[in-house]
Amino acid sequence: MDLLDKLAILSDAAKYDAACTSSGARRGFRAGMIGNTSSSIAGCCHSFSADGRCVTLLKVLMSNACVYDCKYCVNRRSNDTRRASFTPRELAELTIGFYRRNYIEGLFLSSGVLRDPDYTTEQMIRALRLLREEYRFNGYIHAKAIPGTSSELIYQLGLLADRLSVNIELPSEDGLRLLAPEKHRADIFRPMLQIRERHAESKAELVKYRHAPRFAPAGQSTQMIVGATGDSDRHILHLTESLYERYRLKRVFFSAYVPVAEHALLPARDTKPPLLREHRLYQADWLLRFYGFRAGELLDEQQPNFDPLLDPKCNWALRHMECFPVEVMTADYEMLLRVPGIGVIGARRIVSARRVSRLSFADLKKMGIVLKRAQFFILCCGKSRDGLRFSASTLLPQLVQIERGELPPEQTRQISLFDAG
Amino acid sequence: MAWEDTVYQYDGSYDGFLCCVYESYLNKEFPIAFYGDEECFSLYPVRSIITAPSHARRVRRSILCRSQAADRLLQRAFLTCMEDKELCLYRFIRKLYAEGAAFLKNQSDPVYYPLVKAVRHLNGELEKLRGFVRFSEYGGILGGEIEPKNRVLPLLRNHFCNRYANETFFLYDKAHRELLLYDKGRSRIFSVDQLHLALPGEEEVQYRRLWKCFYEHIAIQSRFNPRCQNTHMPKRYRGTMTEFLPDEFERDTTAPYTAADAVSPSVPGGRSAPEILPPPAPPAVGSVL
Prior knowledge:
heterodimer, A: 421 residues, alpha/beta, TIM Barrel, six-stranded parallel beta sheet, two-stranded antiparallel ribbon, B: 289 residues, five-stranded mixed beta sheet, 10 helices
């Protein structure tokens, strides 16, 4: 099998992994090595594929032969698909070749489980070691830690990679038991905990000794599949929040379930992936990480799932109209962040600008505030926007109307079907 | 006291522009238009400014002692493609002299905002191009082309010189006809009238094929979303990106392309590429894009 075929098979097999980021590690160039990782804080997107997702890393599997039989996965044992494996040298040459041409920021290496997790991780370590030590690659590497791997091997892997990730796969233990019987919740959280601790140790050592080994300097992330099981958004969001707090994750990724197999326990083959739901979860994820929201504020028992018609922030604002309108000249930063249409950068600009001048709605627009949303919730120097008309009962339809224009046409169609049903 | 309206002609460099500021205060003239190297016809009096490094330094120091942020902003804004760039910058400097740096806190300030907007556009383009630049290997040397709206090459310089510190590479800005050369820790930018890239070699073609294969396979069909793709990667960038070049681009057969080039208006017969390029091959890039 030639390299082109292998690459086709192994990138096809890896594409359902959501993580494709190169952020978090800052490492300048070193003499005699190829590349660096310090392009910018937010990482660097090298292309965008036809599905609109960014291509930052060479995302491939080491091998798509897998001894597990997870029902939702394309690489499951029982699936009749072509199998291939990279040799460490092929992988290293491919990475270097792509990196030098500025196609990629680095390598994302995952693998199907060959024989057992330890053996698979050993193979991955061999490939990464070749890349780092013989080919002198200094760029970004994201490696998957496979649940069930021994802690010594995970440590080795973390010394070679910038970021590690352990996939949670499904948001609940029940789902895992049903769909991925070989994987256990405890096996998933054990390496996560270990990575967190090793990462903290390494950071503490680096303070004392400049040349202490760096363990996964860009931290760890995880991902879970949304829509394969019956878990509510509220459950997923609470899980996300606890992952950020307990395991100090950098990111939690959600991946809308794309039906790849016919199975009694899974949604039917012709179901569309729940993209809008994934989108809402990411919006909420941002609110958790940058806007100071708590999962409990966004969803509760009465409303366990996000409204497809309205984004989570508007939704929260509508249910807390007693906090609004806020006066932009005096409101504190935390409150500004909670106004729909004002983001982190916008709020900072307001706080800075109002010290030197009185702000008008036109000024806010220049600062990048999304006025069509924010206008309902703010006052400028005690006045609301000229010509703005709304009441408590018309606000919801007005906001829904704005939101409708933002969504891709296919998804609004999805919504109108909802409405009819 | 009224300042006289004058048209300024300068050499198009940032130092030259700072000298215009110097002269305007010296002669009590208000520049109502700036001309670079091109001919200028005007009914207003025209003053040619000769770039004097000492004058430029003096103006720069005066800006720096009011605000370092303003200095950085001005340098970036000078590279943007904003309309009446020099006038906007000039107004900004006047306001800075008159009022001090406090107005920099307010991005909606009428004099400050045009610069902010232009620099935001520049930064966006810069951020995208860091990822979207594509290099090809020509006998051990990496080479690439870009076609940006703003003059981003001086700002990309740092990024790529760090990333490819141990390589030799060149990057050509087709829109502004500037070439960045880097070799062994030293980099230079200079103007080049014309640059033809050679046809790729065997190994290069293979890597392009591999990259296209990867690019096609990494997309999930059922999530197909061209609108999102276009937002993040506007079509104007795609002309120089490997994954969007048609397959014929890599064919070794030269016959159809030399013919096409001869009539193509986009490839005027100009100077050939700098000496670092491999042996002459028929021009390929200009005709296909």
